[in-house]
Amino acid sequence: MQLRTCLAAAALACLSLTATAQGFPTKPVRIVVGFPAGGPLDQHARLLTDKLQAVLGQPVVVDYKAGAGGTVGAQDVMKAAPDGHTLMLANTGVMVINPALYSRLPYATLKDFTPIARTAMQPLALLVNPNVPAKSLQEFMAYAKSRPGQVNFGSAGNGGISHLVPEMFKTATGLFMVHIPYRGSAPAFTDLMGGQVQFMAESIPQAAAYHKQGKVRALAVTSRERNPALPDVPTVIESGIKGFEVVGFYGFLAPAGTPKDVVAKLSDAFAQVMQSPEVKNRMVSQGADPAFLGSEDFAKFLASEMPRWADAVKKSGAKLD
Which residue in 244, 253, 213 sits closest to 116, CA to CA? Predict the structure, then answer.
């Protein structure tokens, strides 16, 4: 009798789960962005929301929970009901850099979240002040090598991707450059254009705009292939640094414990959205490369990226509390 009761309860649970997945979503889906409105993550979220809500049949709203390098937003999603109605749009920093950067991070990427879909990869451009006498990456390397410790590179802040990519470049080339952290990319760009720093790594949209205006010079891009926004700028690999491919990513995650059928439905919805030529073209114009991965492959990707960025953080010496 007891066994029969247990089996019946299990059967009801399975039916309930299936019914939940089939009926999902039953209310608006909230996408949490852990940074202020108007930034690259916000642009990426809004690029996808119209078509995503058409596929899901419910409104999709963007909710900003800015603070602590995306940590505030991640905590909000971590604590949300695991029913698929709350998602986080995260980037490389939130998911794979923060765990190595913060000594007391309130979440664990692979434990507290369920990956839904990776949607894009975002390469960076390596930039110099136009007065630096280098027209190629090899020429810049020779210039910096002859001036150890005299070349400064700016970043948007300690431990961010614009800090760690130059650190990876230093490791790959043996160059000695001095890091100058700023409070955001805007003041760093100002000093790069003014010559207070000579080198910087930055996302493609800003880099391409300033490069075309002649305010900075783009020497290379960090992706495996050339970027459409900077078609005449070679990759770092083309420039002679074998195997140097470093790109950020954008992806969506749900709280841990989200039912598998709901995860599958969400992942499929993003796959449909990413098939749109309009979405792909606009994504490229924003400086990101469409790069969809479903839930399982995104989870494997995260697991492989974490030790790589942890090593970069360790070598940089960056640490935040």
Answer: 253
DSSP state of 69: G
Whole-prediction pTM value?
Answer: 0.86
Q: Of all residues in the chain, what percent carry a pLDDT higher than 70?
A: 93
Cα R_g (the chain), whole angstroms: 22
What is the 8-class DSSP label of residue 288?
-
CB count in 10 Å sphere of residue 213: 9
Please give the Cα distance from 160 to 62 (Å, whole number).
Answer: 24
CATH of domain 28-122+247-316: 3.40.190.150
Top CATH class of 123-221 equals alpha beta
Kindly tell me if the per-residue pLDDT of 24 is higher than 90: yes
Q: What is the pLDDT of residues 166-197, one digit of tens each?
A: 999 999 999 999 999 998 888 999 999 999 99
Outline where 223-287 has alpha helix (H).
260-274, 277-285
Which of 112, 102, 117 has its CA nearest to residue 258? 112
Angle, helices 260-274/2-23, rounded to nearest 10 degrees: 20
Residue 113, beta-bridge partner list? 255
Q: Which has more pLDDT, 166 or 23?
A: 166
Q: Residue 42 corresponds to which tokens in the numbers above? A: 């916000």
